[in-house]
Amino acid sequence: EDHLPQGLALEAYRHYPGLEPDSVVRGLAQRLGLSPGGLTVCQQQGLHHLHRWYCARGRQKKCPLRFRGLG
Q1: pLDDT digits (tens, 9 = 90+) for 19-53
Q2: Residues 33 and 58 sit within 8 Å (Cβ to Cβ)
Q3: How far apart are CA 11 and CA 4, in angstroms?
Q4: Residue ranges of E strands in the chain
């Protein structure tokens, strides 16, 4: 079996263009002053992760982005 070297796969993931922004991506990107249409899929996934673990669970004060006005 052929497998991509880990570094190449990670590089592709980091730079792969984002999907059509959904409400989570649009909302958090707007609050962060980012353009939701210009995010990579990796960045979009990161916003979903933060939303699921902090915003949706009422833990905004523990969010790593709190310093950016999200908490």
Answers
A1: 999 999 999 999 888 999 999 999 999 999 999 99
A2: no
A3: 11
A4: none
Both tokens of residue 37? 């249409």
**Residue owning tokens 């922004």:** 21
Region 7-18 average pLDDT: 91
Residue at token pair 């902090």: 54
**Sequence letter at residue 42:** C
* Residues contacting 18, CB < 8 A, separation 6+: 25, 37, 38, 39, 40, 41, 43, 44
**Rounded to whole angstroms, how far apart are CA atoms 25 and 41?**
10
Tokens 């523990």 appear where? 62
Please, are residues 41 and 17 in contact by the beta-carbon 8 Å criterion? Answer: yes
Average pLDDT over residues 47-68: 86
Distance between CA atoms of residues 24 and 49, nearest Å: 10
